[in-house]
Amino acid sequence: MIEQLMVRDYILFKYAVVDFTDGMTAITGETGAGKSLLIDAIGYVSGRRITSNVVRKGAKKAVIQMVISCEDPSLREYLEENGFEADEHLIIQRTITDNQKSTIRVNQQITTLAFVRSLTARCIDVHSQMDTYQLMRPDVQLNLLDQYCQTQELRRQVQAAYQRLRSVQDHLRQLENETLSDDELDYINTRYNEIVDAEIGEQEAEELDEKIRTITEAEKNSEQIRDALYRLEGEGNVSDQLFDAAKELEKSEITESEAEKLNDLYYDVQEMIEQLKEKMESFQNEAQDLNALQERRYLIRSLIRKNGGSYEAMMAQKEAYLQKIDAIIHRDDVLRKVKKELAQAEAEYKKLAGELSQKRQARFAELQTAVEHHCHDIMLEHARFAIRRTEKPASADGIDDLEFVVSMNPGQDFSPLKESASGGELSRLMLALKVVFQSESGVQTIIFDEIDTGVSGKVAFAMGQKMKQLSRSYQVLCITHLASIAAWADTHFKVEKSSSDRSTVTEVHRLDESESLEELAIMSSGKASAIGIKAARELKARVKNG
């Protein structure tokens, strides 16, 4: 669950810390005070894209930080799998600069928005008015149904089988439509043989580059070696002078040791001369090979350029040429093989898609009963819920064309959600669906952002009661304008905005019991009068009595 939310220099908030508790929390305040800014902050620190400036005027950056309890073993495992330390608490912090650049961290470690979205989706679910309308989409309904039926893994297998089926279908279609002339076959053969005959090694191009570079450098150095050899061997050279000097010194016993040293130097010079000659000869031989090496390098580069731009791509193209040649020469055999593969792919898809469809349909009645039960609890006494199914052609999500349909009044035919319910009915219907589907979602925190549109009185009271029931299993955060819903909360926060000539600041406060009664009175009657507070106290008493 969310334990704490901190914002600094965020839109209208200079600094605020909200310590959440388990159970149900209500966040209230006047329209425009900034209640939804807190939910937006949770969204931003959960990886949601920021589309406008969220840095408070005059500040350089905004900081949003959320602390989540990390008790769920699967959440810890997911963190460890992605290289993060799993502690008792998960701390996510997002910093947004005034030029709209942002950095996000998980437990002090920089990461990506995509990872944070994936991470927080495992523990937080935000439901807003926009989500209400998204629930009308058949694709969203299908996702919820698979979540409820716990068929997500089977659906992934169906998707993989469908992709395999489409791949084989495309291959067969290509083979059946492909007709090549003799000239085209000769062209493919030529391109294939070019690669085969070249016998190019995987690292040969790089090795050739190094050899050519070495020989080119050697050519530059050969002149210096030639000059050095002349000085060592030419007329009046150092070598002869050393030899002659040694012979002169040998004539006297006094200089025998010096003569010996000169002789050693002479033989060292002779050895060096031989080494330099060998190096010159090697350079000359390699220079003769330079043209051949350059021609080989040109051939390799040309073939790579014509066949994908890399050695790996060229090898893949070589295999593709071979397969195409084989397919042309043995066309009938290849067609029979691919048709057999298609039959196998169709059978596998049909088996998996049929199993998925059966598992979905097996839960229809149970789901219908559960939704209708919760609808009746929130004063939709005549509501009936059903899932309309027709079979559709093979697709990545199976063979079921599904849509949620409802009848809100006696004698009314079933019709899609968007055509059947008024605004208030739709809010209640979506709450009922949320309660049912949440049981299989695995999240710890559910956030309702002003989903009480179009309801009041007894209906609002019933919706609050349903949220309270939900809070026995989940942490529930609720932004509401209605006292009949806020009265059910275990914890009550109020968001207030204050303005001066120079600035506007929003603050959030946790209300004690008397402050909460005053706020409920203001929400109901517009002011905290004695009569209003008495009514609020009676409302809380009704809540306490259930």
Strand order of the largest sheet: 2-1-4-5-6-7
Question: Roughly what is the average pLDDT, rounded to an integer?
Answer: 87
Strand elements, count: 15
Class from secondary-structure proportions: alpha/beta
Low-pLDDT residue spans: none
Our count of helices gives: 19
What's the end-to-end separation, in Å? Answer: 25 Å
What is the CATH class of the domain at 1-123 and 442-511? Alpha Beta
According to CATH, the homologous superfamily of the domain at 1-123 and 442-511 is P-loop containing nucleotide triphosphate hydrolases
Counting copies of identical and different chains, the oligomeric state is single chain
| Main pleated sheet | 6 strands, antiparallel
> What is the gyration radius calculated from CA atoms?
40 Å
Q: What is the 3D form? A: elongated
Q: Percentage of helical residues? A: 55-70%
Task: Describe the protein.
One of its GO terms (molecular function) is ATP binding. This protein is of the alpha/beta class and 546 residues long. Among the domains are: 193 residues, 3-Layer(aba) Sandwich (Rossmann fold), CATH 3.40.50.300; 148 residues, no CATH class. The strands form three sheets. Strands 2-1-4-5-6-7 form a six-stranded antiparallel sheet. The chain has a six-stranded mixed sheet with strand order 8-12-13-3-14-15. α13 crosses α15 and α18 crosses α19. It starts with a strand and ends with a helix.
